[in-house]
Amino acid sequence: MAQETDSAKIARLEREIERLQAENERLRRALGEARLDRVLQRRTRSPANRRLRNHPWREREAVFTFLYCPGLEATNWRAEQAIRPMVVTRKVWGGNRTATGARTQSILLSILQTCRQQNRPVIPLLEHLLCSPRPRVLDLTTPRPLAR
Is 50 exceeded by the pLDDT of residue 11? Predict the structure, then answer.
């Protein structure tokens, strides 16, 4: 029987470690979901507590999404920090006079912030959007050069 070389042993052990780590992660996710289910299944007397319990129950599928999607954070801290300058600007300038103005501002600021985060020039994008003969839906999901 041929003996396993040291490098083959190391490679086999590394694969086993990866397998065990993945299994450990899967079990931890299942445990977290089981704990949430137990908490959500508790009976409550207060209508306010029932409403509070019903929200995570309705959103149960989304609660642990960050565990299954690599790179997805558990909180929305970055998003909150990204809109902070716009909120300050709105408050300093006294808000908007109409609901349409507020909606327009939120859309424009969203486009500006998305372009900033994707390191894309915003002027050609807005120019393309404003000069098109028909309304367009912007695709800001992936950074790519703007086709004219």
Answer: yes
